[in-house]
Structure formats: C-alpha cells, structure tokens
Design goal:
The protein is of the alpha/beta class and 241 residues long. It is built from seven helices and seven strands, in the order βαββαβαβαβαααβ.
Amino acid sequence: MSHYTAVITGGSKGIGADLAQRLLERGYRVISIARGKPEWEAEGCEHIEADLLDPASVAAVAADISARHDVTHLVHNAGLIWPNLIEEAKPEDITGLAQLHLGSALTLLQAFLPAMKERGFGRVMFNASRAALGAPTRTAYSASKAGMIGMARTWALELAPHGITVNVVAPGPVQTDNFWGIIPKESEREAELAKRIPVGRLGQVEDVTNAFLFFCDPANSFVTGQTLFVCGGSSIGTLTL
C-alpha cells in the first residue's frame, strides 16, 4: 500500500469513482465522501456518506477522517448544477452551491492541512467546469465554479512554500449523470452538441480523470494555481448547452 491517502468527494460514481479506482491501482488508499451509497466497492477504499450541503455534516466527516488518516491528496469533485434562467434563479441557489463547491472544500482542507504541512507535501484539486466562463441557465453554478478557480489560486500562493500544490480541472460537456440530467441521453440534442465541440465529440469520464492523475502525481510539483480546461476546445469558442 502506498503512503498516499486521497480523499475524493463525489467518489461514489462518475468521474470521482473512476479516479478513485485508478488511484487504487496505483497503490493509494482512497476515502470517498458522497451523499448516496456507492455504485462500487474495492479493497483499499472507504466510502463515507455525508451531505456536503450541510456544514455540520462536513465538519463531522472532516474531523473523523483527519483523526484516523494523514491525508495527502484532496480532490473536491462533488457537484450539482441546479440550472435556472435568471427569472427563476434564487439567492439561496447561490448560497447552497457556494457551500457545496467552496465551503465544504475549505472545511475539509483545514482538517487535512496540518498533516500535509508536517509532511511537506500535498495535492489539492478541484473539479470546476467550463461553465465558469459563463453558460446559459447557470447563474449559481457558474458563479460557484468560477469561485473555485479564484480560491484555488489563493490557496496555491499560500501553500506553495509547504510543498502543497493546488490546481483545477475544468471539464466541458462530459457524459455523466449530471450531464444527462440536463441533456437527454442519446438524444438529438446530445448529438448536435457533440458536433459543435471543436474536436467533434463529447467528453468521457477518462478524459477528466487523466487530467486529475497528472495533478495528483508527486513528480508534478512545479505546477500550481493552474486551471486545465478538459473541454475539447469548447473553452475557446462559443458553446450553448
């Protein structure tokens, strides 16, 4: 077993599950935090159920994990979209997604940071979105995902002297349950969207996981505060979902 311990939020399915399994293959210990029961099990992975929309729940799980493990990698992957046109958007949408996408990450990192600093090593990663650049019906989602980028850059500056890197992966349209919650699976709309992406296809879970694995690697210590768009070129063009 590796001496690396990775905590992945939203590790029960989709991108988080794929990353967890690929880190397990590399000898990591993995702890998944998710609101629902996992869709998979594997030796070396602990699944913890917690609602990251609830600050008290996050604080409890953060204290529990930090008391039992010296966490080296934090991947904040959990997310919700809550799409609404401006007329239907509510301030509480922004508050809720800010807690999920930003506040919960802060609580978790604060719990794990002492061990990372003592070791002189850490890897912190966010799963943001191409929507941070703006997308229709994404008032709360775009705001909180853009906030991830700013927060990651701030953390990168503060933590660089301690051997801790902080980076962001920002996927474009990727075929996951969140995506299919907006775009019907195997629909004409899905096919048309794929055609509008410069590379001519939608993203796959593995495309995003590959980027996270780069940032996870202890050898990549000279890259911090960066946002990598894994979007098939959609971040440099106009894309309407």
